[in-house]
Protein: ATP-dependent protease subunit HslV
Amino acid sequence: MLEPGRGVPTSLETPGGPMDPSQNPNIVHATTIISVRRGGHVAVAGDGQVTLGHTVMKGNARKVRRLGREGQVLAGFAGAAADAFTLFELFEAKLDKHGQLTRAAVELAKDWRTERRLGKLEALLAVADKETSLIISGTGDVIEPEDGIIAIGSGGSYALSAARALLAHTELDAKTIATEAINIAGDICIYTNRNVVVEEL
Structure:
C-alpha cells in the first residue's frame, strides 16, 4: 500500500471531477499544497486562497501546519474545506495515538476499510516527517511518491512541474523551492494565490 510504483502520480488533482472547485459551486475549496525534499530537509508549502464556486472567500487561510507532540510532522490539506478539516483531524488523532507518521497513516487507512461512516471525503493530505512523505486521500488510500515531491490541489501540476525544474537546475534549498513552486502555481491557477505559508523540518 505504501510502496511507490510505476505510473503512480505525485500530483493529485481532478479537473472536472469532484475536487475541481469549478464543478462544485456551493462547496468551499482550499488549494494548492506542495512538499519538497533536499539536503536532508523537507518543506511543505501552501497558498492562502479559499474559493466558493468562482468567488474568492479568503486569501490568507493557513493550510500547512505542524503536528505531533514535538511538531515533528508537517501536513497540508487541499480539497473541499469541511472534508479537508475532517481528514486532517482524523489523521492528527491517529498521529497523537501512535506517534509515528507511517503507522498513523496505515491505521487511518484501516479505519476506512472497517468503518462505513467515514465514507468518501473530497480532500487530500500531504504529510511529511524527516524520513517519509505520504499522500493520504479522502477514500483511505495512502501513496508514497517515488521522488519525494508531493503536489495536491487544483494547482498541483503547475507546482509539481516548477519544483522538479528547480530541483534539477538550481541549488536552492527545499523551503525556497516549495515557496517558488506555489508562487508559480498562483500565477497560473485561478484557485491559487501567492500568499504562501511554508514549514520546514
Summary: DSSP finds four helices and 13 strands in the chain. The longest helix spans residues 81-98. The CA atoms of residues 16 and 152 lie 15 Å apart.
